[in-house]
Amino acid sequence: MPRNKQGSTRTRNGKMYARVTYQDDSGKIKEVWRKAETLTHAKELRKQMLRTLDDYGEKPLQAERMLFKDLANYYIDNYLQPPEYRGNRKIAGLRSYKTAKYQFQPVIDHFSSKLLRSITYDDIEKYRLLRLKSSTKNGAIRSIATVNRELAYLRRVLEIAKRQNWIIYNPFNQGDPLISIADEQKRERIITLEEEASLLMFCTGSRTHLRAILICALDTGMRRSEIFKLRWCNINFYTRLITVEALNTKTLKQREIAMTTRLASELLKLYQSSASPKEAIALQLV
């Protein structure tokens, strides 16, 4: 906590200023100047700075000239980094850090040159409306879900700034909720049996390899990334179970999924075409 705090009003080059000096934790004397319109304004600024030092320490004062791009760079350097694992557990970084950077970029582009502590609830609301009215690069209507993800990143970085005492409060909390998941259009489309048959019918020739992938997705509900990362050691033809390894799941928790008869048959064909003759013969008895 800063010590030996003192405040004063000064005139410099014909301009009125509020000035505060204090001693930081290392014993170094620091000073902060704020330009004022009048002597009364200078006295009010002096009181505000002293009060901020008492309540929150020196970081908010030092961050008054901090731009949003500085916070964004701090967030990218410390949070949006490749994941690090210890065994089957993630200990640092973000698995989808590349996607997160892409989704965060519009926020950076909009607020980049704005003073961090000047961002208000109204500024965020205007950004939300602006993004909802804008079109995608393909000319399509931008979805509410896309804007919600951008706002979620903005809320996250502002909360980090608050935790670091660079801002005193998060402007997201100064009004009604700006992120409404209920407004997002839910995808409840279920493929019909006719559509499924038509889809599988075209898995011939150069598309033959897609048949097993599609049947796996249809019969198990596994995510695309989970399917693409499967190895033969994850398939047990005797118990008819698929083991999805923890590192390949969204929740980082291993799980087992039962195979349907047609999925087991498709995977068995694939395995027998790639396995050694001895292994292929053994699996014919399954």
Task: Give short descriptive properties of this protein.
286 residues, 44% helix, alpha+beta, three-stranded antiparallel beta sheet
User: What percent of residues are in strands?
Assistant: 15-25%
| Gyration radius, rounded | 29 Å
Distance between the termini: 72 Å
Roughly what percent helix? Answer: 40-55%
Mean pLDDT: 85
Count every beta strand, where a strand is a DSSP E run of 2 or more residues. 8
Number of helices: 11
State the shape.
Answer: elongated
Structural class: alpha+beta
Taken in chain order, the helices and strands follow as EEEHHHEEHHHHHHEEEHH
Oligomeric state as shown: single chain
Low-confidence stretches: none
Largest sheet data:
3 strands, antiparallel
Major sheet: arrangement of strands: 1-2-3
Per-chain topology:
Elements: E1 3-12, E2 15-23, E3 29-36, H1 39-56, H2 59-62, H3 68-78, E4 84-86, E5 89-92, H4 97-111, H5 121-133, H6 144-163, H7 193-201, H8 210-220, H9 224-228, E6 235-236, E7 241-244, E8 255-258, H10 261-274, H11 277-283
Antiparallel strand pairs: 1-2, 2-3, 4-5, 6-7, 7-8
Helix pairs in contact: 4-6, 5-6, 8-10, 10-11
